[in-house]
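re the bet — no i am not wrong, look at it urself. input seq straight from the record:
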Amino acid sequence: MSFFQQPITLGRLQVPNRVWLAPLAGVSDVPFRRICQELGAGLTYVEMLSAVAIQYRNKRTLDMCRRHDQEPVLGVQVTGPSAELVAQAIRYLADFPFDTVDINMGCSVRKVVASGSGSGILSEPERISATAAAAREACACPLTVKTRLGMTRRSISIEDTAQRIARAGVDGFVIHGRTRDERYGAPADRHGIRRGIEAARQAAPGPLVTVGNGDLFDWQAAQTMRDETGCDAVMISRGALGNPWIFRDILSGATRHPTLAEWGDVVLRHLDYQESHYGDTELAAITMRKHLLWYIKGFPFNKVLGEQVGHINRIEEGRGYVRAYLREWPGDLPRFEGACRTDARLGVNSKYDPKWDMHRQHDRGVGGVDGGRAVAG
C-alpha cells in the first residue's frame, strides 16, 4: 500500500486515504464531488460557505449544504469576518450531515478579503487565535483550518499563524503555498509549507493532520509535496478541474491518461448526476458548461466541441454532443497523447494545462472566480 493509499485519522473521523478534494468555489457541488469520490478522493467538501449568509439563512447557501446519500465522507468549509459569526455558523451547521468542518483563512478573492473573511484575517493575528478558539469550542466534530503563507511575500506569517491555530486544538491544518497577493500567479512555496507544518506540530497539544496544497496537477507533484514538506495528506484544487482522474493517479503512483471511452463514461455519468441533482433545467446546463469545457481538453478538434457544449441550455444537448464526439474517434485514443499517434488529423499538445483556458464568453456557470480563474475556498 502506497503512502497516499493509507487511511488517516482526523480527530475521531477515519478518512480512507490521503488525497482530498478542496472546497472549490463554484465547482464543488454534489455531481462533481461524486465523480471525484468515485475516482478516489478520500475526503471532499462543499463549496466555501459565508458565515454571514448562514446567519441570514440564505437559501442558495443552504442549498449548497445538500449531501447525496452515496457520498461517503463529506466536510464543510466556513469563512467569516468575526470569531463570533464563525462560531455561530458552526453551531447552526451541527444539524447538517457533515463529518468535519474547515475554517477558511486563505481565500484570496478580493471581495472576500475586503469583508475581513478568507485571507483577510491574516493581517490580524489576534483574530486568528480568537477564531480558531471559538471554532474549536463550537465544533463537536473534527476541525481543520486552511490558510496561506501570509498576506504578502514581505510579510510571511505562516509560522505564527500555524502556532496560533494549533494551540486552539484543531485536528488538522491545510496550508496553501502562496501568499494572498500572489493568488495563483507564483509557484507554490513548499519550503514555506514545511515551515508552517513544523511550527504547527511543535505547538499542537495533540495529534494534528497536516495537509499540503498548491500546484498539484499530477502524482509526481503530490509525491514532491509529501517529500519536501512532510505533510500527512494532499488537497487537490485546480488539478481536479476536468481531470478527476488525478485522484486515481496519485493513489496508484502513475499517470494513466483516460482513453476516449473511459473519458466518455465519466463525462456522461457526470451529466447524469448533474440532471439528477439540479433537474432538467437551464440552470443545470449552464452550471455544467464549465465542466464540459474543462473535460474536452486533450482531445483532437476540441474547439468545435467547445463551441457546442459552451452554449448548451439543456443537459440532453450536452449528452448529444458528447455521444456524437465519441462516435467520431477511436475509443482507445488516450487523452493528451494524440500527438504520439500516427493519425495525422490528431493535433493534441500533451503538455497543455486544461485549467487556464476557460472559454469565459460561454462559461456563465462559474461562480466564485477572481480574475477569470477558478479559485479554491
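see?? The two ends are 31 Å apart (CA to CA). told u. also The CA atoms of residues 143 and 336 lie 39 Å apart. so pay up
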